[in-house]
Amino acid sequence: MSELRGVGIGLGVAHGPVVRMTEALPAPESTPSTLGADAERERVREAVSVVARELTERGEAAGGSAQEVLEAQAMIAEDPTLQDEVDARIDAGSTAEWAVHDAFAGFRATLEAVGGYLGERAADLDDIAQRVLARLRGVDAPGVPDPGHPFVLVARDLAPADTALLNLDQVLALITVDGGPTSHTAILAREKGIVAVVGVADGFTLTNGETVIVDASAGVVTTDPTDDDTQRAAERAAARRSADTAPKSPGVLADGTPIALLANLGKPSDAPDAVERGAEGVGLFRTEFLFLSSSQAPTVAQQREAYRELLEAFPGKKVVVRVLDAGADKPLAFLNDAHEENPALGLRGLRALRASEDILREQLTALAEADAATAADLWVMAPMVATVEETVYFTALAREYGLKTAGVMVEVPASALLADRVLAHADFASIGTNDLTQYTMAADRMLGSVAGFQNPWHPAVLRLVREVGSAGASLGKPVGICGEAAADPLLAVVLVGLGATSLSMAPSALSDVRQTISRYTLEQARSLAEIALAADDAAGARDAVAEAAAALPPQKKETTS
Predict the structure, then answer these.
(1) Are the C-beta atoms of 212 and 152 separated by less than 8 Å?
(2) Residue 218: is it exposed, middle or buried by C-beta count within 10 angstroms (0-12/13-18/19+)?
(3) Identical fold, 2-19+150-244 and 250-551
(4) Active-site residue identified among 101, 425, 458, 482
(5) What is the 3-state secondary structure (H, E, C) of 191-251?
(6) What residues pair up with 152 in beta bridges, in sequence order?
(7) Looking at domain 37-137, what is its CATH homologous superfamily?
(8) Out of 8, 75, 106, 183, which could bridge 216 as a Cys pair, Cβ 3.0 to 4.6 Å?
C-alpha cells in the first residue's frame, strides 16, 4: 500500500478500479495538400462548425458554470483571427489537418503570453484542436473512456467539455496530475459533487485496473488498499450520502454561532437546486449571463424578468447580486472591447461600468423594479472596487435607485487594506478570494505556469481577509466570502475565524461545509486561523491547521435560542 498526495476537492471518498484517460491524437505530418486550398478550407469550415455546435449543445445540457465555459470554447473555435491563421497555412499548401494543428498551437502560445482571461482560454485550445482534428480524420475525439463499469478516472487534466458531462453513475472519482484548487477541473468537480484529488504529481504511476481509494478530505490516493481499508471507505461514503439527504439546517458553529451558508449562482434556473441543498440565500449572483452572449446590452425589461425569477426563489432570504463584472478581460462590444496589454489590471468591473454609466444605471433600475415586485432581501454589490471613492460612488448610486443595501467586493489588496474606510460607506463587504489571491500573489489565476501560487491558504491572503473581517466586526458590518475558498471545508473554518460572517459557494459544497463548521466553536476557529497566519506558505498553513484540527476534542453542538 502507498499514498499519492494532491489537493482534495470537498470531503468525499470513493474506491474502485483505475481507468486512464485516452491519449491525445498524434500530431499530423506536414505534407502538401493533394486536394487544393478550396477543398481544404471547406473541410475545416465543416469540422469547426460541427465542433462548435457540439460544444454549445453540451453546455446547454450541463448548465451552470459548465455552460459558460463550453459556450466560450465554441466561440474560440469559430474565432475569425484563428480562422485566418488556418487559411494562411492552407493557402501556403498545407493540409487542413496540419493547418489546424499548427495554427492552434501558435494561437495558444500567443494567448498564454497575454495571460488573464485570454490566458485561461489558451488551455482550452488543445481540446478544441483535438476535436477538430478528430472530425477531419473521421474518428472519435479523445475523451472520457467507457469501460462498461464504474471506475476511477485518471487524467493529466480534463477539458471542460469532458468534466461538464461526466457520467456520475460510472465515474466514481477523479484524479488529475495537473491543476489546483481553483482550476476549471476543480471548480466543475466541486459543482457536480465529484470526489476528486487534483495536482497528484505521481498520478501517471497508476495503471489501468488497479484498485485505489480516493480520499478528497485528506487529499490522498491510496494504492493497493486492504479489504478493511475499502470497507471503511465504503462506510464513510455511505455516511456522507446519508448526511446529504438529511434535513438541511442553517449553518451554525458548535457553540451556536450562526454562519449563513449561501449559494453562488450564475443563472436564475440554478436556484431550485440551491434551495434543495439548503442554501440560506444567495451570496453571489453573477449577472454576466445576460450580457456575455449578446451583441448589445439587454433591455431593462429583460433584466428585470431575470432578476425577478431569481428573487422569487428566495422569499424573505438574502440575495446578493453583483452588477456586471466585465471589461477588457471579458470584452463586450457595447462596453469595452479595446485591446489592453494586461487585461487583468485593466478597465474591468466597476471601472468599466463607470466608463459606460448608462449600462450600470439600467441594471440598477431593473434590480430596483424586481426588488419592488418580490419578497426577497436584495443586496447589491460592485466588483473590483479598489478605492474609498469608488465605494462612495457605487453606494450613492445604488441608494439613488432605492436599493437599501449596497456593498462592495474586496478582490484587490488596496480595498482590503483600507477595509475600515471602505466599510464606513458600504453596508457590507464580500471577499472574492480567487481574485484577491491573484492580485496578492501577482500570479494570474488563469495561467497554468503560475498555478502553484494561486492558493487562498497563503498567509499573505489570509492576512488581508483578517483586515476585512476585523473592520467588519468593529463597524458592525457583515463580511462574506464568495470565492472558491469558501467551498474548502477546512479553510471555511479558518475564514470564519478571520471574521467571515457568511460563506457562499457552489450549492454542491454546502453539505460538506455545513458538516465541517458544526464541529468547531468560534474560539477554536479563531485559534486555527492564528495557526494558519503563523505559517510561511500555503502548504504549511493547510498542513498545520489540519494537524491542529485533528487534535481538537469533539464538540457538543449547541443550539441557538
Answers:
(1) yes
(2) middle
(3) no
(4) 482
(5) HHCCCEEECCCCHHHCCCCCEEEEECCCCEEEECCCHHHHHHHHHHHHHHHHHHHCCCCCC
(6) 18, 173
(7) PtsI, HPr-binding domain (1.10.274.10)
(8) 8
Are 222 and 3 spatial neighbours (Cβ–Cβ below 8 Å)?
Answer: yes
pLDDT in tens, 311-369: 999 999 999 999 999 754 455 666 665 566 666 787 788 998 998 899 999 999 999 99
Q: Which residues sit opposite 348 in a β-bridge? A: 327
Residue type, 45: R
d(CA 328, CA 345): 9
Q: Which of 15, 101, 184, 458 is catalytic?
A: 184
As a whole number of angstroms, the distance between CA 436 and CA 427 comes to 20
Residue 184 appears among annotated catalytic residues: yes
Per residue in 81-137, pLDDT tens? 889 999 999 999 999 999 999 999 988 887 677 655 555 566 678 888 988 999 999
- Three cell numbers at 330? 471579458
The DSSP annotation for 136-172 comes to HHTSPPS-----SS-EEEEES---HHHHHT--TTTEE
Please state the domain extents for the chain: 2-19+150-244, 37-137, 250-551
CATH of 250-551, one of 3.40.50.1000, 3.20.20.60, 3.40.50.720, 3.30.70.1450: 3.20.20.60
Interaxial angle between packed helices 116-137 and 37-62, expressed in degrees from 0 to 180 and rounded to the nearest 10 = 120
Residue 149 bears catalytic tag = no
pTM of the model: 0.74
DSSP character at residue 96: H
Query: Which residues make Cβ contacts (< 8 Å) with residue 484, sequence separation at least 6?
Result: 181, 182, 186, 187, 190, 433, 434, 456, 505
Contact residues for 60 (Cβ-Cβ < 8 A; gap 6+): 67
C-alpha dist (Å) from residue 190 to 109, 279, 302, 400: 29, 16, 31, 39
> How many residues appear in the chain?
561
Distance CA 315, CA 308 (A): 11
Angstrom distance (rounded) from CA 287 to CA 264: 11
**Distance (Å, whole) CA 399 – CA 275:** 29
**How many whole angstroms separate alpha carbon 533 and alpha carbon 498?**
10
